[in-house]
Every structure is written in structure tokens, then in C-alpha cells.
């Protein structure tokens, strides 16, 4: 596969709402889990393409706190898929120098899945290439609520002065505290909403909503989206002179 030249002015941190797996499968007369498996394969391609495109951080929305409302069959199938994916990819992550982190509330997840997540984070902690963050049982409001509880506890314990709390304080308590904010958030499948994803972190992110369903989101489409980002004028509330 040909290697791409890093894009001039491209985003350093890309976050993706991977939507459309179920519809992709149903359009082919297959069960929704068939689409989720196809989507997992697409993740591998996009992860592999990031270093060549100058992307240092990739955050993907794998399972939201709202996804528990889906059928028991689909949820069980997704949890099994996550376990298989992590087991299959763990060594590849190390080989490709990818550091993996998970964000979200782990407490509701199966203990065996939690153990795999911990092991993957530990094994890849020495990796210095792409930073891959997987949002699993994640919701932006839930993340802010959990962060606020931790912040409030520090105030109650005397470790934090309430008068010192400002907009730079809360991010230190978020799941993403060691990550830069995303420059670009992509949502596939034609839906134009953010679905409770990285609410605090994406305050100044650029958004790209595309019609392509996630299993059809190729490296070439990814490259085109990143190229379009490079042509944008990001002012962060300022006015160009």
C-alpha cells in the first residue's frame, strides 16, 4: 500500500463517531452484528493510516452509555466483539507502536473485559507512536458528572481551593486529562448530531458529517476529509485582521 505524505495543516487529533454499522448490515440482508464486525475491520485500516497522514491522536466512539438500551442480543454480541478485537489486536498494537487508552465508565463492563483493557493499556504504555483512545461505555455527560464528583471530593478533603477552580481545572479530572482536545470530529452515516461525545473537549473542534456508513469509510475517504480540514480557517473566536 502506498504511503501518504502527511497533510499540511492537517489535524493532530481526530475523533470519530463510527456510525452506520447496523444500517450497512441491514442493507445487505444481514444481522446488525455482521455490520459491527465489518466496522471493527475498518478500524484497523484507519488506525494504520494515521501515522502516514500526520495524525498523532485518534479517538473512536465504540460504545456509549446509551447503547445499553439496544437488544440484549446486540449488546452481548458487541461485548464479545470487543473482547475478541482486543485479544486479536493487542500484539499488533505493540508491533505498530500504538499506545492504547480506554475512556468511559468501566464499572458496568464485564470483569474479563476490564482485565483485557487494563492489560492492553499496560502492554502499550511504552509505545510512542499513534495514541489510540477507545471510548467504551462512554458518555460525555457521564464523564463530566464523574469528573465533577472527583473535583468536589478534592474540595471537601481540602486538597483544592474552590476559589481556584476555573475552566482549566475540570479538564484535569476528565477521562481525557492526558490528551489534547480533538481538532476534528468526524461522524459517519449522514447523522448530524454529536451524540454525547466529548462534549467538553470538542468546544472548538471542527466537525465533519459525512453520508458514508462506517464499514465503507476507507483510507481514501479519511484522507479527503483530513485534506478538507487543512483548508479551513480556525479562529477560535477571534477575527482575522
Descriptive report:
The structure is a single chain. The chain is α/β, with parallel strands linked by helices and 241 residues long. The chain has one domain: Decaprenyl diphosphate synthase-like (Undecaprenyl pyrophosphate synthetase, 3-Layer(aba) Sandwich). The chain has six helices and six strands, in the order βααβαβαβαββα. The chain has a six-stranded parallel sheet with strand order 3-4-2-1-5-6, sandwiched between helices. Helix 2 packs parallel to helix 3 and helix 3 packs parallel to helix 4. The radius of gyration is 18 Å and the shape is globular. The mean pLDDT is 94.
Ends distance: 43 Å
State the shape. globular
Helix-strand string:
EHHEHEHEHEEH
State the major sheet: 6 strands, parallel
CATH architecture: 3-Layer(aba) Sandwich
Rounded to an integer in angstroms, the radius of gyration calculated over CA atoms is: 18 Å
Provide the structure class.
alpha/beta
| Uncertain regions spanning at least 5 consecutive residues | none
What share of residues is helical?
25-40%
Multimerization state? single chain
Nearest-integer average pLDDT: 94
Give the total of beta strands.
Answer: 6
Q: Quick one: CATH class?
A: Alpha Beta
Give me the CATH superfamily. Answer: Decaprenyl diphosphate synthase-like
CATH domain fold name = Undecaprenyl pyrophosphate synthetase
- Please indicate the count of domains: 1
How do the strands line up in the largest sheet? 3-4-2-1-5-6
User: How many DSSP H or I helices?
Assistant: 6
Subunit structure: Homodimer.
EC number: 2.5.1.-
GO molecular function, one term: magnesium ion binding
Protein name: Isoprenyl transferase
